[in-house]
Amino acid sequence: MNKPAPVAILLLLAGCLASAGCQVQKPQVRINDIKVPAADFHKMDACFQLVIFNPNNFDITLKSLDYRMSVEGTELCRDSYVNVPLPLPACRNAPLSLNVSIVYAKAFETLKNVKPGQIVPYELVGTGKFRVMNVDCIVEVRHVGQMVFLKLPEWKFKKVSIAKGGSPALELIFEVTNPNPLPIPLVSINGSICSGPDVLASIDENLAKELPANQTAELKFDVRVHPGVAARMLLELAREGRRPDFKGELKLVPPESLRQLMLEEMRIK
User: Based on the domain organization, do 73 and 87 belong to the same domain?
Assistant: First the structure.
């Protein structure tokens, strides 16, 4: 004898419960809030906070929830909630958090038309598998919002010269491009001024400068050096065929406004 199909069992039970004044209903899933715990120039971490409502007069269980995020139809990431089954009490709400991490470099490789600082629409789609009276029930959730793709500012060393003024100092000139829609603070500069294999000066300075938003700017830094180094630098600059160079880094710190910008764009409108 053939066993009844699960759907037939569910319909049969639903009919029995309906005749008893009770109706089987699918659970309701919605996104209640979005958090951005962390964001920098390399990636963004977002947390989608769901509310699952069980409209039935009996308990059900969430077995799993698969979800993916995409931009312009291209999938950027996917993950699953596959922890221990989540009990959903009768006629009650239950919270569930879905975590998403977007790596910008990987996204730019996939999304050829998306530029740094551009606001783009995204879609989060999830498929939940619930256990209702020993029968699996599928419920989908879909959310559409906006997000910003950021990029680490680019910089290049242009030249070094003797700074004007009484104290011995070097003036370093950099060209920095900030493609993001917010200003970025510069924290420090450290490295060495070199001419070929020779190290002319070592630099480790705290800065109090800011990169303008959506601009390419020429930034100048006066770096103090020991007496005599400036004169030696002049000699090195005068050597035929030798151009001083900078080997080091400009340290940037993502401002709090960066995370706030991401949150502002992704928030539920």
Answer: yes
Same domain? 245 vs 171: yes
Tell me the per-residue pLDDT of 11-66, one tens digit each, with 9 for 90 and over.
444 444 444 445 789 999 999 999 999 888 888 999 999 999 999 999 999 999 99
φ, ψ for residue 111, nearest 5 deg: -100, 95
Residue 130 burial by CB count (10 A; 0-12/13-18/19+): exposed, middle or buried? buried
Helix (H, G, I), strand (E, B) or coil at 210: strand
The count of structural domains within the chain is 2
Domain of 83 in residue numbering reads as 27-150
The identity of residue 26, as a single letter, is K
Distance CA 137, CA 27 (A): 9
Nearest to 156 by CA among 63, 246, 269: 246
Q: How far apart are CA 81 and CA 177, in angstroms?
A: 40
Name residue 188's beta-bridge partners.
206, 251
What is the DSSP-derived secondary structure letter of residue 152? Answer: P
39 within a domain of the structure (yes/no)? yes
